[in-house]
Structures are given as structure tokens and as C-alpha cells.
Amino acid sequence: MDGIIEFANTILQPIIDLGPAPLMTIVLTVLALCFRVKFSKALEGGIKLGIALTGVGAIMNILTSSFSEALADFVKGTGLQLNITDVGWAPMATITWGSPYTLYFMLILLVVNILMLVANKTNTLDVDIFDVWHLSLVGLFAIYCGAPLLVATILVVFIGVLKIINSDLMKPTFNDLMNAPDGNPMTTTHMNYMMNPIIMVFDKVFDKLFPWLDKYDFDAAKLNNKIGFWGSKFAIGIYLGLFVGILGGQSPDKILTLAFTAAACLELFSVIGSWFIASVEPLSQGVTDFTSKRFEGRTFNIGLDWPFIAGRAEVWAAANVLAPIMLLEALILPKNGIMPLAGIIAMGLTPALLVVTRGKIIRMITIGALVLPTFLYAGTIMAPFVTETAKKVGAFPAGVDSSALISGTTIEGPVEKFLAYFVGNASQGQIEFIIYAAIALVIYTLLFVWYAKQMKKRNAEYAAEKK
After folding, report:
1. Cα 285 to Cα 287: distance, rounded to the nearest angstrom
2. 286-320 CB burial, b ≥16 within 10 A, e <16
3. 3-class state of residue 371 by DSSP
4. Any idea of the CA torsion for 144, 148, 153, 155, to the nearest 10 degrees?
5. Residue 307 confidence (pLDDT)
6. Residue 179 needs a FRET pair 20 to 30 A away by CA distance; which of 87, 142, 239, 464 works?
7. Is 459 exposed, middle or buried (0-12, 13-18, 19+ CB in 10 A)?
8. How many CB atoms are located within 10 Å of the residue 84 CB?
9. If you ran DSSP here, which 8-state letter would residue 84 be given?
10. What integer pLDDT is reported at residue 254 of this predicted model?
11. Residue 220, pLDDT score
């Protein structure tokens, strides 16, 4: 194990140190060249992907940092004793990449992905290697809780295999949501979509008990067209900014600044979503030409970061409504210790809600409200680990009191964090945790198997419609 870890860090660390945008530019360019795409076109696609990732990161930072001050003032004004600071995804990624085990997990998962492709167990090549930190965080948390490296590796590989299988299952739904042809190679192995099985349970409950609610649902994009500006992303951002500013007791000028900042960010997300699509066009053509010549009857998918679907209005409409709901839940949930600040825009959840419900806004909001506590409790239970690890790798946020606990509210994969907690403690021989871990893993596996069957039925319906 030590040899593999040293090899991974020696070979891959210099590339990872470049950062996500340069890293993915290199990965996509090289991948396109492997499929015999002209160098200029391959490089063009890679650069566009790097620009898209930079744009998404910049806008998310603007949005979350703008809201954090107002929400922090709200917490102070209420006198609440929520002692865990929500630092959002960026510091969490920095903390994770500061561990030598992350590159080790990345190397193992790359090998697993290749083996699955060769064995025809998946059609997805996962190129979103920077976001392996989400799954690495699970492994690191398991180790912190007491799991040996081998056990943590098995857990990471198990979840990683399911993520790749899930990317295949979701592909037809992405085509439907984006109105894209079958030849479009874009899918994703992102960790946020591992919430799909739980969301689908609630979606099936809706089908059985509350189907009449769908009569009152609406298509966000069509609504925007009908009512014009007042239903646009600009307007939704204005509403959200005003709400957060007033909630935090900000001055009129700060409230208006928040409103216009949120409006600009939400509109720009839609624009950047189209950049992801443009970035993979050269690779898409290369993959199509390659597979038609050498793998007749088989198509390959490319696993990207999740924001290629960010142009769907429902993602942001649901996120804006869920923001105040999450605040309320944080205040009233027993044993919760974290107040949503940097993670107030629930990107760890809303893309999964979109895929499972296929854009039914009422379902997205209702189900989202029901599963948000999972994120809050996962953030709470991870706080000691995140805080200690941040200090060890020198990534503790400068603006946070050194005695405070830090974590994240809507970090992707909350259920998997609980699996890590149970497996880690079970590894120490605690009988109750051995039982908890066994039950949790069985339920997690059976739920995914059931979910996969439901998605296969959906995909068969898509295929029948096209015939």
C-alpha cells in the first residue's frame, strides 16, 4: 500500500497541483488526441472546459461569500449556539487534496474504471478526476474513525463502482433534459447523484399517494417564457438576494448589492452550462468516429463535472426555495450543530432532484426539504474530522476562529459519510457499530439495486418512444 501511495503522489501530484481548470484542460485535450481528434480542435475543447470550470468556481465563490456575511449576522442576531462554521466546498477540497491518500484513491479508481470498460461493465470513461476528492473524503473519514487503509480502500472502490454504474443509468435522462441526441457523450459520475436512490424512494411515494400534486406543477422554463422577466433567473436571483439580505438585517445598500449579485450569478450559471457542451464537441466527434469503426454497436460516454446540466432553470428555482427551508431546518433540528452559510446554495442536492423527478418543481422542493437534514447531520458528524485534518495540512480558513469547528452543509455524498462513520468505528471491534455498519451497507446496496431497476425501466421507455 505504501508503495502505491508513494507512486501515486510522485507521478500525479505535479499535475494535480496545477488546479482543476488546467488539469481538466490537459485531460480532455489528451483524451481527444487519443481518439485522433485534430490537435487544434482537441486543445480548443480542453481550453473551453477549463474556462467553464473556472467560471463555475468563480461564480459559486461570489455567490456563497456574498451570502455568508448576511447569514452570519443573522446567526449572531438570533443568539443561536450553532458552533460549527460552514466553510463550503472549496476549503473542503483543499483539505482533502492535502492528504497523500487522495492521489492513492484516485489512482485506484482510475484502474477500476479502466477494468470496468474493458470488461464491458460500463460505457463511461470518468475524466472528472479532480472531483475524486468527494469520494476520497469518504475514505479519509473512515480512516479517521478507525478503519485501516485496506478497509477504507474497499469502501471507496465499492462506492466508486456504483458511481460509474449510475453514470450509465442516468445517460438517457440527461439526453432528455438537454434535448440532446443519443450520440452526445456527456454524463457524470459526480458524487451528488448518489442521492438519486433515496430521492427516488420519495418520488415513488409521490406517484402512489400524491399524484394529484402534479396537476399544479409547472415547467420552469415555460413559466419564464410566459411571465417574462419576473420568472427569469435574473428575477429569481433578485428575490433570493433580497430575502437573505433582509433576513440578515443588512443595510439597504447591502441588501440591494446581494440582490443584484445573486441575479447576475444565476444568469451566468446558465451561460456557463453551454460552455461545457461546447467543450466536449470535438471529443464527441472523435469518440463517435472511433467507436463506429472499432466497437460496432457500443457507444462510450464521458463522465464530466455536473454543471453541464446547470442551464436547466429548475436547478436554480429549487435551490432558491430550499435555501430558506434549510435555514429553518438548521434552527429547529435537534443535535444539529451547523448553520448553512457557504453551502446555502444546495448544489449537492438539486442536480440529483432534477434527474430523478425530471424537473417537476413541486416534487424537487418537497423531496429536497425532506432530505436536507441528511446533509446537516453529515456536516455535524464530520466537523471534528474536518477541523483536525484542516489544521494538519495547513488548510484551516484564515478568517475563522482557531478554536471553532469547521465543516460543510451541502457537501456531496452525505449518506456515504455516515457509511464511513459506521465502517470506521466498526473496524475497531465495537459490536454495536459492526451491527450498524452491516445494516447500513445492506440497505445502501439493496436501495441502489432497486434504483437501478427503476432507471432501467425508465430507459426502456425512452428507447420505446424513439422507436
Report:
1. 5
2. bbbeebeeeeeeeebbbbbbbbbbbbbbbbbbbbb
3. helix
4. -70
5. 75
6. 239
7. middle
8. 24
9. E
10. 83
11. 55
Three-state SS for 312?
coil
What's 338's DSSP letter? B
Q: Grid coordinates in use for 300?
A: 462510450
What pLDDT does residue 54 have? 78
Asked whether 273 and 290 are in contact (CB, 8 A), the reply is no
pLDDT tens-place string over residues 376-407 = 999 999 999 999 888 877 767 766 677 788 89
CB 278 within 8 A of CB 51: no
Which ranges of the chain have pLDDT less than 50?
A: none
Question: What's phi and psi for 407, nearest 5 deg?
Answer: -170, -165
Beta carbons within 10 angstroms of residue 25's beta carbon: 23
Q: Kindly report the CA angle at 376 between 131 and 16, in degrees rounded to 5?
A: 15
Q: Where are the domains of the chain?
A: 2-182+196-298+314-466
Q: What is residue 55's predicted lDDT score, i.e. its pLDDT? A: 76
Judge contact between 188 and 167, C-beta under 8 A: yes
pLDDT of residue 269: 67
Return the C-alpha cell found at 260: 443584484
